[in-house]
Amino acid sequence: MGKTIIEKIIGNHTDKPVAPGDVVDMFIDTRIARDFGGANVVKNLENYDLPIDNPERTFFTFDCNPGGSDQRYASNQQMCRNFARKNGIRVYDINAGIGTHLAIDEGLICPGETLVSTDSHANIVGAVAAFGQGMGDQDIAYAFAKGRIWFKVPPTIKIVFEGEPSPTATPKDIVLAMLRELGASGMLGFASELYGDFMDRLDLSGRITIASMATEMGGICSLFPPSERIIKHCRRVRTKNCMPIYADKDADYTKVVEIKLDGLDPLISRPGHPEDVVPVSAVAGQKIDSAFIGSCTNGRFDDLLVVADILKNRKVAPGVVLKIVPSTDRIWQLCLRKGLISIFKEAGALVGNAGCAGCAAGQIGQNGPGEITISTGNRNFPGKQGKGDVYLASPATAAASAVAGHITTVDKIPDRPSLFAIPVVSKGKAIYPSKTGISPQKVKKPTKIIGKIWVIDQDNIDTDMIYHNRYLTITDINQMGQYAFSNLPGWQDFPQRTEPGNIIITGKNFGCGSSRQQAVDCFRALEIGMIIAESFGAIYERNAINVGFPVMIAHRIKSLNLHSGDEIEVDFLSGRIQKLGTKQSITGNPFSEVQLDIYYRGGLLR
């Protein structure tokens, strides 16, 4: 039986052939830490006195808040700079741009290679048929020190796109169509390969847009078989050891998904859920307060050229704020040389320096309560870009809407923009609870636990809901517990209600979204006994396993008819979960050999 692209890549980076489900020790070609997460990577390396395996393969990228506008970000960046100077590590500092884009454009990664980063969208490098994976702080520290990391080989879905979209549809609309078809967990735990005449013709920018949103479907990565155009790009930026990689003709796919593109019109995601995708026409006319164009999904030169064509000789609608941020400084400079920056400024846009910008809610500001934003980012979870509502769309739709003052498409920009009604002034205030977290203590490791449960019957609870990005600069675990579920409606007071040893029971795809370790550590700080879910986001599950925090998948957990306050007994070795006081029990997934070993050791780095 032949091999898929991901099986070939991982197999080439281990000492044996691999198959889906194998847990392997994989060599990592490129290891990156960002400005959030990076400081914790440094702390792990220093606390455990770990060396750097190969400084030439190791990098820091400051892209979430490249201006250092928050004092904690500035401190974390300086911590990383000092560590880099001592260890001969290159820093792509605040003027460089988004790390994954730099990896592609600077030749840090080529087809068939592997990359890990504290960025949950490291899988963007699938655009050039490379394997990128976002990981937590301990994973990245281990990769920095050892040059390798354990990984479970994912199965592969083959996605075939058929037909031709409408002339107004863009690569962003294609990936939104994928989200509509597959949902927030439709690729959970899978790699995917993308095929079809339209996909074959896509340039690098279009492939980056689509690869960047695999995470929003729960996917490990989306891989494009490299075209001649992509191979030429990779060989131009790195002349050595840059060879294309393709799946075998008889590769074994878990399933084949067909997505129809015929006549596809521009799409948009409604606020709160990237997968809540509808035609733009379904929300056309919705007044907006602001627009953001950029992010790792849509900050390439080709994206901004489309925006410039729309904004030329036009103005942003009165009262609407338009923010534009190129993904790298090289793209920023190209926009300057080609006259795009002048067009943006004359139209009334704010142009930021290269970086993640609005998506990370740090570099170029957030939106406020009640603010309606149309964004080219990849996520619109509540609170991700501020306290307002965020629609996700293509650069063309975002630019057209900024000019119109309301959501619309390029072909329907009105002669006169819509205006705001007379504002109503109101007063309000926000009160935030405060409680000091508890440092987890080193104890003998049991393989059975009994605990009172909290049932959170909800799917797709993302890491922004678990641990909001406003607290990401906190590196002291003792301060993290008070913010657990701080952005999950109905559960904001969880830290005040829970007790040590309690067990969380929840639904599918728990911990989807960002790679933040804090979304695990906040529960460690509260001394939560374990989390049982129908399924976990791939990065979240790794982060929990790597710090020795007990997590278990139990697809049939709802069959126990559990309620908050019930008590259960969980056996890590057998996977047996029993509802105490009854004879009811089910079997979840027992701890794997790797998980059990790390659990006994108290963490990957111990």
Describe this structure in words.
A 7-stranded mixed sheet has the order 22-21-20-19-23-24-25, covered by helices on one side. Strands 4-3-2-5-6 form a 5-stranded parallel sheet. Strands 16-15-14-17-18 form a 5-stranded parallel sheet, with helices on one face. It is globular. The protein has 3 domains: 5-260, Aconitase, domain 3 (2-Layer Sandwich), CATH 3.30.499; 267-412, Aconitase, domain 3 (2-Layer Sandwich), CATH 3.30.499; 448-601, Alpha-Beta Barrel (Aconitase, domain 4), CATH 3.20.19.10. Helix 2 packs across helix 5, helix 11 (301-311) crosses helix 13 and helix 11 (301-311) packs parallel to helix 14 (395-404). Helix content is 27%, strand content 18%. The protein has 606 residues and is of the alpha/beta class. It is built from 19 helices and 25 strands.
In short:
With about 600 residues, the chain is an alpha/beta fold. The two termini are about 40 Å apart.
CATH architecture of the largest domain, please? 2-Layer Sandwich
Strand content: 15-25%
Secondary-structure content class: alpha/beta
CATH class of the largest domain: Alpha Beta
What is the molecular shape? globular
Helix content: 25-40%
Keywords:
606 residues; alpha/beta; Aconitase, domain 3; Aconitase, domain 4; 3 domains; 25 strands; 27% helix
Secondary structure blueprint with pairings:
Elements lengths: L4 H8 L10 E5 L2 E5 L3 H10 L10 E4 L9 H17 L2 E3 L6 H7 L8 E4 L13 E4 L2 H10 L1 E5 L3 E7 L8 H12 L8 E5 L1 H5 L2 H8 L9 E3 L4 H10 L17 E6 L6 E3 L7 E3 L10 E4 L1 H4 L2 H11 L9 E4 L4 H9 L2 H8 L2 E2 L20 E4 L13 E4 L2 H10 L43 E9 L6 H4 L27 H4 L5 E4 L11 H8 L4 E4 L4 H9 L4 E3 L13 E5 L4 E4 L5 E3 L5 H9 L5
Parallel strand pairs: 2-3, 2-5, 3-4, 5-6, 8-9, 8-11, 9-10, 14-15, 14-17, 15-16, 17-18, 19-20, 20-21, 21-22
Antiparallel strand pairs: 1-7, 12-13, 19-23, 23-24, 24-25
Helix pairs in contact: 2-5, 6-8, 11-13, 11-14
